[in-house]
Amino acid sequence: MMTTAGPSHPPITILKRTRADLGLAQNKFLKKTAKGKVLSFLRERYVRDDIPCGFEGCDQCRDLPGYKPVLQKGYRHTKIDPHYLVIDTNIVLHQMDLLEAFPPDLALIIPSTTIRETRHRSLPLYNRLQQLVQDDERKVWIWWNEERRETATHAEENEGPNDRNDRAIRLTCHFYNQHLPIGHPLIVLLTDDRRNRELAEAEGLVCCNTKTYVDGLVPEVRQDLVDLVVGGVDAEVVTRGRRVYEEYLSQDVLNAGIKTGRFVQGYFNASQYNYLEGTVSGILLAGRQAMNRSVQGDLVVVELLPKAEWRAPGQDVVDADVDQRNDDVENEVEAKEKIQENVGRPVPTGKVVGVVKRNWRAYVCHLDRSSLLPEAQLASLSQQTVFATPLSVTLPRIRLRTRQAPTLVDQKILVTIDSWSPFSRYPDGHFVRALGKVESKEAEQESLLLEYEVPYRPFGKAILNCLPVEGDSWKVPPKGDLVWRDREDLRDLIVCSIDPPGCQDIDDALHARELPNGNIEAGVHIADVSHFVLPNNPMDSEAASRGTTVYLVDKRIDMLPALLGTNLCSLRPFVERLAFSVIWEMNDDAEIVNVRFVKSVIASKEAFTYEAAQNRKDGPLKDPLTQSIRLLNTLAIKLKAARMRAGALSLSSPELKIHLASSESAEPIDVEQKQLRETNSLVEEFMLLANISVAAKIQETFPATAVLRRHGEPPKTNFEALQDILHKRRGMTLDVSSSKALAESLDACVDPQRPEFNTLVRIMATRCMLAAEYFGSGSVSKEAYRHYGLATPIYTHFTSPIRRYADVLVHRQLAAAINYTPLHPSLQSKSHIEKTLNVVNKRHRLAQMAGRASVEFYVGLALKGAARREDAFVIRTFRNGLAVFVSALGLEGLIMFKDIEYDAENYIITVGGVTIGVFDRVRVEVGVEKDKNTQRGKVKMVMIEPVNQTL
């Protein structure tokens, strides 16, 4: 039996122990079934008397295994006597920023009850707590109160789980008071639970809430902590006014309503064009009242309004930065009137009646200058209430109290939402930290990472300890070593890689050769990452948490440590590497005769860029490597043609290349669209084929738990607006009855005078699609496996395990499917796979958004020196302007007009006597201006043709 005295401490080993030696504790649990029946469960656990207390001067624990004197001198920089803090669960759940900012010499005792309850309530906070505990610079001791005989507890008669947990934490305080020698530092329970404090005081314990504790610290310590206290905005300020929003319904009522179909549950998506609108599962929420304190990404419950109250989405651009006084109630009434006047077909409209799960986190913001008090009033105040405006236009302003307001005006800051009362127009939050000067590259880059929740911290010691001990000098061992077990020696194959310029994390390599029987052998060789990343070790857990490598313009945030990602796993040329190979035998028509999967050792003969591979294919050389590339290209052309015949879609999204002055300065000097070559398609086709082949194999072997990727068929209603625009503006028809019909009708959307028209239609069609997602094969019916865009009945991701965690899981499943290794138990659990893939899907989505935001930031920097004049295409019309897309820069922007005529039915506006509609080409000047309120650079577009916007 193994246990530990804390994650940062050595394990305690108990060899032969009897039931009587360990003691036995019982906990009784009641569980309500779906049918309403209450079942009683009795859980037994062993308790011990040899877990050390962690106190430096404890004679009773000195000789116990795992003894480590973390608790030494009590903390003295406070009005309270020298003390240790015992941390209640609500402190971790609501004051984590403060806990992380506490001085390193402040000793914390964290009961195991607190840890278990945190893990149950919030996995992200649990992970942050683990990092806090494992920090060697801090004095943190985990007290295993549930395992120690004196503090083990069980639920008493009529005692709920929360009351039982509170009592268990108080019992920890009693234990230390009785266990430690006379004259020990004071034991202080830190809790924001009023009832728990009252009971603690009645039992003779010393306790206080967070605000009181921080206020009692010496000034030089308090000044760095006071802004981090959650609940800094006085409740009286919130409740003095009238009720602004409806109260949420009880959870029981919400659950019953969802079950009967009266309510709809879904994620809240705020409109990018109108901060007073949002949607949930296709239901329109019009106005702040209807959104009822929802924040982007919240899981909410919506009640559908009567059909007579359904409305059309707004036809105005309503910018929170420009609109008068943001979220004022006065403007709320005006906004509702605007919505009622809108023309267009009404859509289902509803209101939020409850929140299932909040998506609150730390947001990048700036202080609203208008909310600051005059300097003369600041002298008598330690803190003032101000408003922070989030970087994202989809979020409301956040009210907070801070003493640093004057110094934060020109800074980007991190703010966390804590609560949102129905009596307040704004959510309340607290200041976390300053990120740096607005518009400074460092602050902007860190803001981007934080805004999209990219884990960019360095890899910790525990993770790096999982790497091969040989480090850079690791090599594939000679034959006969265990590494070679069941591996094929493919080092003599003419294998090469084809990647973008500067690629260091080379996942894949390819080969092709003619066989004696006249068929062709083609192979895809993928880095064998799963050989180095073992299940459930710290490196694997970190990779699962990160989910994916994030590619920004000037840097890469790796999923795996660089030793693996850019060295030992990277299929570099001229060195031997471990691989997982998919090898097909094909006929001349690129039809698969057979396929096999094998662990292998390869030695790549060359690392090409797309351009170099294209030149090699088109050049005069006839060596085996060149012939291999030509053979691969011939097969790829036939594979793509077969996919297109099956109904695969060719959609568009512009890819930009940012030219930087140098790797040191990373200053952008130019922007251009990436050029796609035949060799891009070559690699794509074989990666798709490998993913399809592997998907079929793992699903056949593990029908309930295979890690797959699907792309659902979009609802036909998603295309209605685009179909109507094409018909009215171009007389064209878009057939969405199937992916094949859609592909064929997209091919027919051609304007001979404007070749770029077809690309624009494909970009707009892409926005009508659903997002692809990872899933476990047992979680949906087999019919739902289909990948709509690729027109294939099954698909997965196998080809990029260096940069995608889903691929690592697929490698493990494929290895088990070919009997190379047994399948790890975690990959046999449907619930574990679903939970893991939910994280991976989220990380994948955020990484894409971060990458696009990085490109947009650098495009803005490139434009800062001089505005550019570019062709743009109208993609949407509003009653007060146009949305245009500048393909050369990959930017979408708004052009606003004061006096225009708006024809919503025909998607046109008339301004200055000129009619402009969707799909029209206009000339714009794209530059960057400094927003007076936000103090940040903002891309601004001005039309110069056919109408000069200044007219």
Regions with pLDDT < 50 over 5+ consecutive residues?
1-26, 233-239, 324-340
What is the global morphology? globular
How are the strands of the biggest sheet laid out side by side?
7-6-5-8-9
Mind summarizing the main beta sheet? Answer: 5 strands, parallel
The number of strands is 40
Number of helices: 27
First-to-last CA distance: 81 Å
Average pLDDT confidence is: 85
Class of secondary structure makeup: alpha+beta
The helix fraction, in percent, is: 25-40%
What would you report as the Rg, rounded to the nearest angstrom? Answer: 31 Å
Please tell me the total number of domains: 5
Taken as a percent bin, the fraction of beta residues is 15-25%
Subcellular location: Nucleus
Domain RNB: 487-820
GO cellular component, one term: cytoplasmic exosome (RNase complex)
InterPro entries: Dis3_CSD2 (IPR041505), NA-bd_OB-fold (IPR012340), PIN-like_dom_sf (IPR029060), PIN_dom (IPR002716), RNase_II/R (IPR001900), RNase_II/R_CS (IPR022966), RNR_Ribonuclease (IPR050180), Rrp44_CSD1 (IPR033771)
